[in-house]
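CO-FOLDING WORKSHEET

Operator: S.A.
Ligand of interest: zinc ion
Run index: 342
Mode: holo prediction, single chain
Checklist:
[x] sequence pasted
[x] SMILES validated
[ ] output reviewed
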Amino acid sequence: MPLVPMRQVLEEAAKGGYGVGAFNVNNMEQIQAIVEAAKETRSPVIIQASRGALQYSRMIYLRNLIMAAVEEAPEIPIVMHLDHGNNLKTCKEAIALGFTSVMIDASLTENGQEVASYNYNVATTRSVVEYAHSLGVSVEAELGALGGIEDGHGANLRGDEHLTDPNQVEDFYKKTGCDALAVAIGTSHGAYKTLRYDKDHNPLPPALALDRIEEIHKRVPELPLVMHGSSSVPPELVEIVNKYGGAMKGTMGIPMEDIQFGIQRGVRKINVDTDGRIAFTGAIRKVLWESPEKFDPRDYLKPAREALKELIKSKMIAFGQAGHAGDYQPITLEDAKKLWYS
Ligand SMILES: [Zn+2]
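OUTPUT RECEIVED:
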């Protein structure tokens, strides 16, 4: 199956009432883990690269690795998505490389450090939508601003500071024509998402404004919503890291029940990066700790790839995308242009 536009994958997910995981990649092993997980669970999947990832891998490597995955998994609908594009130029570069979907995050200014005005967000998003749609490429936008920092992108906000205002969503959607909307409901990027602790200083899960999802979905039911910063940071994975020489602090991520609550109310794309990083690193630490004599990278990258695959399979099952890879015929960007954007 060729790459598909994200809009198709999200529309099908809406019909089926499930969510689709969007997993971040930087290297071959991560891409292979995601595609293996998709094949084994028969899941459509979104593979996404941030600007930081594209810089790390020098763009063309990552793009060609994803294309290898597409070639190897003809039965799986795969979206190649740019995560947190900061301006039209970055989005154009990704589209030129063959990305079938881009995110323009104009909730922050171009340097990704300050909260931008609503009008700036609308105008910048609109310019990307016009360009991308003329080529059949899907666009995710963001309204409200997320907490935390991801690959240098983020204003170091607290997760609860700039929540999406449901009163702005209809106007934003009408003015920009985006295909999906990332909402700020109290999640943040990274491993340290929570501001809440019990009386013994043990971390509690972050408080999410789930009622906003419900409200936004009610106002614009046809707009697929996106949850960023949705790693659950499972204690058992953190424990592996720490058992084998790591030093991650006590933390809590987003409980799967909260994500599933969102999926029942219009969330169709769920971004997961941190959990994969922890699973991957934990597996590497274990090998190096237990077998210090080893020096062949394959000895630790293979178990890391395996650990990541198992993690992603469990997410695919929990989000509900498992079993849906064969539900529909893929469309091309040309088809998308005629179907949605002309
Ligand atoms: Zn994000």
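REVIEW:
The CA atoms of residues 257 and 318 lie 9 Å apart.
Residues 84, 146, 150, 189, 228, 271 surround zinc ion (CB under 6 Å).
[x] output reviewed
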